[in-house]
Amino acid sequence: MEVVQFILLGLGIGAIYSLLGQGLVLIYRGSGIVNFAQGSLVMVGGYAYYEFRVAAGWPALPAVVCATAVGVLLGVAVQHLILRPMRTSSPIERVIATLGVLLTLQAAAVLRYGVGPISVPSFLPTDAVEVLPGTTLGVDRLVILLIGVLLTAALYAVFRWTSFGRVASAMAENQRAVASLGHSPDRIATANWALAAGIAALAGALIGPITYLQPTQLTLLIVPALAAALLARFVSFPIAFAGALAIGVVQSLITRYVTVTGWGDSVPFIVIIAYLVLRGSSLPLRSHVLERLPSVGDGRIRVVPTVVIVGVFAFLIAFVVSPVWAQALTVTMAFAILTLSVTVVTGYAGQLSLAQYVLAGAGAFAAATFVHRAGWGFLPALIGAMLAAALVGVLVALPALRTRGINLAIATLGMGIVLFSLVLSDFALTGGDVGIPIGEPSIFGWDFGAIRHPYNYGLVALAALTLSALAVANLRRGRVGRRLLAVRSNERAAAALGVNVLVGKLYAFALASALAAVAGVLLAFQGVAVLPAQFDVLTSITVIGMAVVGGIGTIGGALLASTLLPGGVGTQILHGVDNLESYLPLVSGLFLLYVLRSGRNGLYEMNAHLVRRLGRLLRVPALPSRAPSARAAAPEPAGAAQHERRPSRRLHVADLRVQFGGVVAVDGVTLDLVPGEVHGLIGPNGAGKTTVIDALTGFVRPTRGAIKLDDEPIGQWSARRRARAGVARSFQSLELFADLSVRENLAVACDDDGARRYVSDLVAPGRIQLTAPALAAIREFRLTDDLDRKPGALAFGKRRLVAIARAVAADPRVLLLDEPAAGLSDEEARELGALIRTLARDWDMSILLVEHNVDLVLSTCDRVTVLEAGAVLARGTPQEVARDPRVVAAYLGRETDEPNPADEPNPAGEAGPAGEAREADESDDSAEGARV
Ligand SMILES: Nc1ncnc2c1ncn2[C@@H]1O[C@H](COP(=O)(O)OP(=O)(O)OP(=O)(O)O)[C@@H](O)[C@H]1O
Fold first, then answer.
1. Pick from 173, 311, 430, 741: CA 20 to 30 A from residue 791's CA?
2. Does the C-beta of 690 come closer than 6 Å to ligand 1?
3. Among 691, 693, 850, 853, which is best to mutate for testing ligand 1, by the most ligand atoms less than 8 A from CB?
4. Does any ligand 1 atom lie closer than 6 A to the CB of residue 691?
């Protein structure tokens, strides 16, 4: 019976979660946004109810109605003032905006009500009723459960059977399509936000009396709700409801039967993370939408300004400032190291981690344990803590290996909670409220305990920050930094160039965690003991938020961001201005919303011109542009034939079949790519051409068939391994790394991937060393003048050439080109054809050319295979294929004996089947072409 009782209690808790979970699904379905501020909206409802009911003394019903109305208005305001202007921002930026709403509402609540709990009377009867024999549940819980059931049924019905629901559902998929059908996406999103925020506020009024009102606690209700919504893939109301109940029940049972604290909070997330990992894939699908990413700095170190700035700060700390300011500067410098860790993991590697502050805590506890329990000195303890945190960081990164974007944000938030609940809150490990004492730190007999020697401690923090910033700058300029940026920009393209995407992500998390550990140690070792409560989960969100405010991809941005974090310079300045420091979190939250809304890249970049002017005033060389120096590794003239090539290789594929669920995309294809030859692969849209390339390069797993590189079966190899073995590809949509210059794009393809770079780059990244094939590709593709430009600054035709040059720079032996001439003019396409022939003839490559431009195929290829609906329709020399009546009828669209229509130029150079027929008409240069 006891079990049943606890299940019932769990249902009561789950019902509360379900109200939040439904709001999350509602907002996602109506606007494609995962609203991390849903718990904060509950909090607002709770406090609004308190204001009306307790402070103003209203009767219960009007108080509940008005609290709900406050929620509705707030929902409308958030959608209208913040998210609507961010319509074109990436989903991740919009998620960060909801984190900004969370931080702002939380800060406002703390300002008004403090951090302690406030009790509020319930308007629902709280008597227990017997539900089953021997088991009871409060009437209030039963009512909430009933509301959950009714709400789920109502939402299900609205979204299933009304036109509003259908249109709203389409919003998450494609807002443009919805708009083109005459609906207003804004109005629909606003309606959904209003409804979801109203439900959240009602939930606040309902559960405030049960849980007490406390800002942090209510805000964190988002965590189980996110888990429930994720189970429902943010789509299904009934599954979100059932998931919320299940989580409530599991938590209740764990609380009763597991004596170790923290498991109740953690288990739902462990399950969710496992689910995400199992469901995810190590590389994104072809359909994965690339997001606009914040710009990154160039990582160049200006020696003179750096020495001057560090010297000035050392002087100020050692001789000028008061102990209070020394402490504020120390806190800011420690936070700067933490925001630098965000620069590495989120700015460079593109992985949104919501666990950085908890990781800092893990580092601080590791160091304290080494000092207190093992008797280590400060320096070994710090290094040990960095290694320990790096290990924990690798664990936190595990979900990142198979999931990305918003799901990863949820997973890292969950990992942070698991780490906090199971490790930092474990009394045996961290000493609970007493913490772990740390004594007086010293290095080689030099005492720098913050209490007795705040200036010395400040100097240690300055040294740590300087080294960290230099390491992060070096990382950016080195091979590993390029690899991380390539991963952030486009995982598929990175893997196709032989970059180890998984190792890159793990490394970014490990390095960021090691930096976070340094920050954690510096923050925690200021006191007499390290305390778990110092490293709460929500501050991780504040850290990400402020990193965005500063500028998440630049070192200057990270330094600026740190001044806004609690206890640092910002707090100290506001303290001097009429004790305004308690407003800092609110101001910072609003700042975050402003920066995101303005679509800019943070305060650092917004004020870059000021920094430049300051540089000129200090008579130091003007800050160079973001692109690395044109002098660096300027290509020397190098001919294709001049570099020593790897031996040629032949790629053979037999009886290839690829199936996606019920769709057979490729069926029984056999191809032989031999050195020195260009093999054309043509066919109408959807014939399976790209899928063949995907299968040959390891991006999809074939259902059947053998793929051999010379005599070696490579069918089971990863995309990266095939790339390293010399199988390169280009992509239909180019997939260049937008943040990297042309030179860096090529460098990613030819950088050696030695493991020692992961360490040596932090100290001595060296200059870009382009290999002979890369230099030859630059010459061959005439890219010398474009090396320091970003792809976005190039004309479309040039970009296509860069994409092929990048594949060629990897010195491939087999090159698979996916529609390289799409969008090129006739003249450009002809030049490209000549280049492809050069690559085959002079570079001795085995080339597969997938093209819709039949002229190009017929004039460039030695052999051609024609696909239709996944199967081979014909194969042979271009002449044979062009004459094949089946090809002419099925693909080229007219009979062989039809007269050749007028030779109209096709500037686009590509089209669907009809266009392809016209392309074929243009091949009148050759007699065979004219016959087609
Ligand atoms: N990940 C996937 N899941 C399900 N179906 C897929 C997937 N990728 C491709 N397909 C389907 O496989 C078939 C072949 O697609 P593919 O893109 O290879 O054709 P294609 O010849 O390259 O077309 P196009 O010329 O338009 O690029 C199509 O029906 C496509 O919808």
1. 173
2. yes
3. 691
4. yes
User: Which residue has its alpha carbon closest to ligand 1 atom 26?
Assistant: 685
Domain contains 566 = yes
pLDDT for 292: 61
CA dihedral 523, 528, 531, 535 (to 10 degrees): -10
Regions of the chain where pLDDT drops below 70: 1, 172, 281-293, 609, 611-645, 890-932
Q: Same domain, yes or no, for 671 and 536? A: no
What is the structure's pLDDT at 185? 82
Give me the helix-helix angle, 2-31 and 185-211, nearest 10°: 160
Q: What's the pLDDT at 540?
A: 92
Provide the phi-psi class of 557: left if phi over 0, else alpha when psi is between -120 and 50, else beta.
Answer: alpha
Indicate if ligand 1 lies below 6 Å from the C-beta of 912: no
- What is the pLDDT, as a whole number, of residue 285? 63
User: What pLDDT sits at residue 899?
Assistant: 38
What's the gap in Å between 907 CA and the centre of ligand 1? 25
In a domain? residue 545:
yes
The token duo for 114 is 């403090």
- The whole-number pLDDT of residue 133 equals 82
Whether residue 328 is contained in a domain is answered as: yes
Ligand 1 centre from 421 Cα, in Å? Answer: 45
Domain boundary among 207, 233, 259: 259
Cβ of 281 less than 6 Å from ligand 1:
no
Q: Which of 491, 400, 404, 401 is nearest to 731 (CA)?
A: 491
687 CA distance to ligand 1 middle (Å): 7
Place of tokens 């002079």: 842
C-alpha 701 – ligand 1 centre gap (Å): 14
Instruction: Give 690 Cα–ligand 1 centroid separation in angstroms.
Output: 7
What gap in Å lies between CA 470 and CA 482, rounded to an integer? Answer: 16
CATH number at residue 112: 1.10.3470
**910 lies in some domain:** no
869 Cβ contact partners less than 8 Å away, ≥ 6 residues apart: 667, 686, 687, 688
ipTM here: 0.96
Which residues pair with residue 476 across a beta bridge?
none
pLDDT value of residue 440 = 87
> Which domain, by its residues, includes 787?
640-741+771-897
Counting ligand 1 atoms within 8 A of each CB, the residue from 492, 681, 690, 850 with the most, and so the one to mutate, is: 690
pLDDT at 536: 86
Q: Is the CB of 284 under 6 A from ligand 1?
A: no
Backbone angles phi, psi at 587, to 5 degrees: -60, -40
**Ligand 1 pocket, residue 663 CB under 6 Å:** yes
- B/e letters for 826-861, b = 16+ CB within 10 Å, e = fewer, are bebbbbbbebbbebbeebbbbbbbbbbbbbbbbbbb
Same domain, 534 and 579: yes
Tell me, yes or no, whether 663 and 591 share the same domain. no
Which pLDDT score is estimated for 284? Answer: 65
CB 543 within 8 A of CB 335: yes
283 lines ligand 1 (CB under 6 A): no
CATH number at residue 693: 3.40.50.300
The whole-number pLDDT of residue 901 equals: 36
Do 520 and 556 fall within a single domain? yes
In this structure, which residue's CA is closest to atom 29 in ligand 1? 686
Residue 27 near residue 157, CB atoms below 8 Å: no
Q: What is the pLDDT of residue 905?
A: 35
CA–CA dist 189, 76 (Å, integer): 9
- Closest residue (by CA) to atom 6 of ligand 1? 660
Whether residues 659 and 518 fall in one domain: no
* Dist. CA 277–CA 266, nearest whole Å: 16
Domain identity same for 152 and 81: yes
Collect all residues with Cβ–Cβ distance below 8 Å to 54 and sequence separation of at least 6: 120, 121
Strand extents, DSSP E, 438-557: 442-443, 446-447, 529-530
Q: Look at the chain and report how many structural domains it folds into.
A: 3
Q: Which of 553, 584, 617 is the last residue of a domain?
A: 617
